[in-house]
Please model this.
Amino acid sequence: MKQETIDKELDNYGNCPECGKSWDAGRIWKVWRDMKDSKYYQDKTDEELQVMEKESYSKPYHFSKLIGIEIREKYDGVSYNQCPFCKATWDRWTGELIKDLKEAGLE
Ligand SMILES: [Zn+2]
Model:
């Protein structure tokens, strides 16, 4: 059988199935707008920020708090997703919840 290469669906903007906290970090252009110490973003109008957002990101144009973990020797890209609040970790490819982070070499 061909290897499954499609991300098992974890809703990057939903709530953690383990601890229930939200991974939604909000609309990207509004996060930029709120970066008060960034002159680069403060010089732009809301409309300009929305254009930049659409050019560089895809729907739903939100940032996610979910952490992508890359294992360099294993795969060039994210192999695991981790909740920043409870540290629950899922295999990106199978969607499996990793029970033992040490055993998986993630700690
Ligand atoms: Zn969690």
Summary: The CA atoms of residues 80 and 91 lie 5 Å apart. The two ends are 31 Å apart (CA to CA).
